[in-house]
Write a structure and sequence with these properties.
Number of strands: 23
Strand content: 15-25%
Helix content: 40-55%
CATH architecture of the largest domain: 2-Layer Sandwich
Number of helices: 22
Shape: elongated
Number of domains: 4
Structural class: alpha+beta
CATH superfamily of the largest domain: Metalloproteases ("zincins"), catalytic domain
Strand order of the largest sheet: 4-5-6-7
Length: about 725
């Protein structure tokens, strides 16, 4: 424990006894601290992992600001908000100025005193109000369109939004960690490219003893690598993760001021401030890269015109950095500067630090062009002087016991990477995550693959479950009658595809094509089935697959009563929508009558088929011709019984003179040709070579005398035969 500090006499300016406020020195004070090993890691960290963890997890505000501004496209939101507000402001300005008074209700317009006042107010200020309202609406609409709309997709359920945010955060953290490792591991190369070099023998002899002395007073067993930058004008010092870079102008400064600078930089190095800044830059790397160009242009060409042009092109990026990222990161940066100033208190170089700050030497002005985008915010020098004086006075006036500023309080305890309880918790969480991910993977593989959709579809067909089969289709709008389709599948004549096997499956993003081999109607067949990934997710993150198509439209030229599939009568409305069928084979039967019969037909619908045709052509029954001929003969016999020269409605007549006592006799019945015109009707005709023969006899009267006659003539029969129940009817054609 250090001795208590003496209290100076009243009126005497306080001084800082160097040995009382500094940390305990290592026993081997005569030996200069060695340079660090691999990566020149600061002391006090058990491993490089602890060092990186301490820096990465420190500034959560800066990380949150960089993450939000970059990964939620805040500059794009500002740009769209500005133009949206501008367009609606102009629209509101003209709309409000030209028609604001017309929107006033007639009741208020007719009110005495109030009506004219309101009308005058709206006439003179309606355009301004419309412009303001339009700008506010357009600005908010454009801003929220970029921030909110990407998360409000068709399948953006709560779990989808959460998983999307988690995935975005993991990507940002991963990029931040990789960028931090890049900055740390390649830091020597990057500094050489930026102009830093190894110190000369004279520079090393001038600066290294001061650096070692400050390290001993801070209780640091090693120091970072010392590099020089050729700048004879500006006294500057910058700390990186593994190096301290000073300008050549520092060589002309007094030893106590150089020691104050080194004390400041060693605290930065020991507390890992560069790791924190690198991680913040890495999380916002796309935005930081976008900001690098305008800052480089303004720094390289310092002119108001250049600044104006750069601002007009890059103002969303510049404003996002200035008013979002920088303010959130500034708290940690300023706290780091105040903390680094306390290094001069520990090493006893308060007066040197005070003179440096009073002269406003711009050390620690930024570590690179990217640092200017994120880390160039330092506290005002006067506030740093106030904090330095308070710390030094508190160290002098401390009572017996510990000083107000100690290395332990300044640097803290880094500790191990994690306690046993922490590692147990992390292990349990990792195990649960692996188990959950593995379980979800098994569920995805078993139930949400394209193969699962194909297997489920054909299984539903095998179970004759039409509703389940339709559930595997992307489009079910073609189903005209679900109940009829269900009856068709459950009927006895339906045969689903059997021996189904997926021979190949090719996937391309959200689409897939499966080649399916199966047996249908006793024949081996192969079809191509197209699938599409569901937009909607089951449980928020499991996307299944559905089959494109899967329904075949039935074209049935012969429609009407008696047309059946699997014994189920089909509707006879030819003008309605076509009946749609699921894959399988269907037994089709048509109507039957006394004239015709319809042979049974099998309709085969394959999985990739879009249409099927049902012919069902009726044929004439063999007995129908005999029945028609019998009806015709009976009709002819009736005609032959008549005793007139021209039996009405009959196919024969006598064209002689005045005939009396006429009698008819059928010598030969015609051979008829019967052709179906429908399931219950047929056209009856007589071919020329099979005409019938009839004999007519009687007497003719000529000038009061009579003369007998007998003649033969050929005749034909034409008409329509129709089915009349189980009988056949004949209607002769008009002569």
């Amino acid at each position: 424990m250090t001795e208590p500090h003496p209290v100076p006499p009243e009126g005497t300016p306080p001084t800082v006894p160097q040995l009382d406020v500094r940390a305990a020195e290592p026993p081997a004070a005569d030996t200069p601290p060695p340079t660090g090993g691999f990566a020149d890691r600061p002391p006090g960290y058990p491993s490089a992992l602890v060092w990186l963890r301490a820096g990465i997890l420190r500034d959560w505000r800066g990380v949150l600001g960089a993450f939000f501004a970059t990964w939620f496209y805040l500059p794009v939101a500002l740009l769209l908000a500005f133009w949206g507000g501008l367009v609606l402001a102009v629209s509101g300005l003209f709309a409000g100025g030209l028609g604001a008074d017309d929107q006033l209700p007639q009741v208020l317009r007719d009110a005495p005193l109030i009506g004219p006042l309101l009308e005058a107010f709206l006439t003179r200020s309606g355009g301004v109000l419309g412009g303001v309202v339009g700008f506010v609406v357009g600005f908010l609409g454009g801003f929220l369109a970029v921030l909110v709309v990407p998360w409000l997709g068709a399948d953006a359920g709560p779990l989808t939004v959460v998983t999307g945010l988690v995935g975005t955060a993991v990507a940002a953290v991963l990029i931040g960690v990789l960028y931090t490792l890049y900055r740390v591991l390649l830091e020597p190369r990057l500094l050489v490219v930026s102009g830093a070099r190894q110190p000369s023998r004279r520079e090393y002899a001038r600066l290294r003893p001061v650096l070692d002395d400050c390290a001993r007073r801070l209780g640091l067993p090693n120091v970072p690598r010392l590099l020089m930058e050729d700048d004879p004008v500006l006294s500057n010092a910058r700390t990186y993760a593994r190096h301290v870079v000073v300008t050549t102008a520092v060589l002309t400064e007094p030893d106590d001021e150089i020691a104050a600078l080194f004390s400041h930089e060693l605290v930065h190095w020991r507390t890992g401030d560069e790791i924190t800044s690198a991680f913040v830059r890495g999380v916002g790397l796309p935005l930081t890269l976008a900001h690098a160009l305008p800052t480089w242009l303004m720094r390289t060409f310092p002119h108001p015109a250049t600044n104006l042009v750069v601002f007009l092109f890059f103002w969303p990026v510049l404003l996002t950095m200035r008013y979002v990222v920088l303010p959130l990161h500034a708290r940690d940066v300023r706290a780091a500067e105040y903390r680094a100033d306390l290094g001069a208190v520990l090493t006893g170089h308060v007066e040197g630090m005070r003179r440096v700050l009073e002269r406003r030497l711009s050390f620690e002005t930024g570590r690179s062009g990217w640092d200017e985008a994120v880390c160039a915010t330092h506290p005002p020098h006067e506030l740093r002087l106030d904090a330095l004086e308070r710390a030094s006075v508190a160290g002098v006036s401390a009572e017996a016991g510990e000083p107000a500023v100690t290395a332990e309080r300044l640097f803290g305890h880094s500790g191990p990477v994690g306690t046993r309880r922490t590692w147990l918790l992390v292990g349990a969480l990792a195990l649960a995550a692996c188990a959950g991910t593995g379980g979800l993977g098994v569920v995805q593989w078993a139930f949400f693959r394209p193969q699962s959709a194909v297997d489920g579809y054909f299984s539903a067909l095998a179970d004759t479950d039409s509703d389940a089969a339709l559930g595997f289709l992307t489009d079910q709008s073609g189903v005209t009658d679900r109940k009829l389709l269900a009856r068709l599948l459950r009927a006895e004549g339906y045969q689903p595809p059997t021996d189904v096997e997926i021979s190949s499956l090719e996937r391309d993003g959200d689409t897939a094509t499966a080649t399916v081999a199966y047996r249908l109607a006793g024949a081996a067949q192969t079809s191509t089935v197209s699938l599409r990934r569901d937009d909607e997710a089951t449980a928020g993150f499991l996307h299944g697959w559905r089959i494109d198509g899967g329904l075949a439209a039935l074209n049935a030229p012969v429609a009407g009563p008696g047309v059946r599939l699997n014994g189920v009568e089909l509707p006879g409305d030819a003008e309605g929508p076509a009946l749609t069928l699921l894959p399988g084979s269907y037994a089709a039967t048509g109507p039957s009558s006394a004239l015709s019969e319809t042979p049974a037909e099998t309709v085969v619908v394959g999985p990739g088929q879009s249409a099927a045709t049902l012919q069902l052509a009726p044929v004439l029954k063999p007995a129908a011709v005999e029945a028609v001929e019998a009806r015709v003969r009976a009709w002819l016999d009736e005609c032959a019984k008549q005793t007139v020269a021209a039996p009405p409605g009959c196919p024969f007549r006598y064209y002689g003179g005045s005939a009396q006592k006429v009698s008819w006799k059928i010598l030969e019945y015609p051979k008829l040709a019967v052709e179906l015109t429908g399931p219950a009707s047929a056209q009856v005709a007589t071919p020329y070579e099979t005409q019938g023969k009839v004999q007519v006899s009687g007497t003719n009267t000529y000038f009061g005398g009579t003369s007998p006659f007998t003649e033969e003539d050929a005749f034909t029969v034409a008409g329509v035969a129709t089915a009349d129940g189980d009988a056949v009817a004949f209607r002769p054609a008009a002569n």
